Amino acid sequence: MQICMTKRTFVSTKWLLYRNFFLAFPANHNNIVSFFTTFYYNKIMFTQNKCLVHYCRNLALSTFDEDGNITDGKNYCLDHIPDPGKFKQEIYKYISEHDKIVGLNVCGLLFSDIDLSNKKFYGCTFTNCTFNNINSSNVLMRLCIFDFAIFNDCNFIKSNTQFTSFSGATFTHTLFTSSDMIQNNFNGIKAYQSSFDDSDFFNSRFIAATLIDTSFRNCNLKRTLFYDSKRSNVSFKMSNTREALFTPEGKSLTESDLSFGNTIVDGGHL
What is the arrangement of strands in the sheet containing 120-122, beginning at the earlier edge strand? Predict the structure, then answer.
């Protein structure tokens, strides 16, 4: 069953997200341009229709007008759409032909062997999607939802992602290296043999995350939360772990948890 955020939740939180954007970063050209680009498109971004099947509570998939632009028209969810194969082809075609994608809703769709490099996604919903062998280097994402998505053999190298949720997602052999992953939600994720090295995770959250054979080497972890996280063979070498929080009481990693270069290899949680 698909689990998607409702229209009420999206609308009630968007102003909080915008406020946090300005509180988190100093005013500069790039931040202001990014903010107003997102704000301009908010009508489509925060229009979430329910499936046309009256008893179905899933979100409807995106619709397109005659010119191929995303609209806020009514549609079925992936479980009830008459021709899911045709819809998948339309989505692949739309993404390949557009560098900027705004307000796309494709809950539950399978993506395989598609190149998302250098794409820009604003307010898109990918809840419960599966991504296999996806190249997403230099991708930019703002206010996107990847809750409960599955990523296998994917990369987000040199990506720039802010105010985006990966809650409950599963990552296997996935790379987030050399990326700006600021103010994102990784709560409840499961990461296996994945790398977050050389990245900025300022004010992001990994609450109740399960991290196995995964590395955070040379990362900015200032105000990053790891409450109740379970870690096995996890490396924080050369990362500022003392500025991260590992318990609600504000506890950081202790000397006994660390070896040379701020590396932790433990089988449990603090």
Answer: 100-102, 120-122, 140-142, 160-162, 180-182
Amino acid at 41: Y
Residue type, 44: I
**Which residue type occupies 142?**
R
Question: What does DSSP assign to residue 220?
Answer: B
Token pair listed for 81: 């759409």
Q: Are 5 and 48 in contact (CB under 8 A)?
A: yes
Helix axes 7-24, 29-40, angle to 10 degrees: 170
Give the separation between CA 73 and CA 227, rounded to whole angstroms: 41
| Integer Rg of the chain from CA | 19
List the chain pLDDT tens, one digit each, 270 residues. 444 544 443 334 444 454 454 444 444 445 545 555 555 455 556 677 899 999 999 989 999 888 888 888 899 999 999 999 999 999 999 999 999 999 999 999 999 989 999 999 999 999 999 999 999 999 999 999 999 999 999 999 999 999 999 999 999 999 999 999 999 999 999 999 999 999 999 999 999 999 999 999 999 999 999 999 999 999 999 999 999 999 876 566 654 454 433 444 433 333
Helical spans, DSSP H, in 98-210: none
Q: Strand pairing partners for 230?
A: 210
Which residues have a Cβ under 8 Å from the Cβ of 183 and sit 6 or more positions away? 20, 24, 162, 163, 202, 203, 204
DSSP 175: B
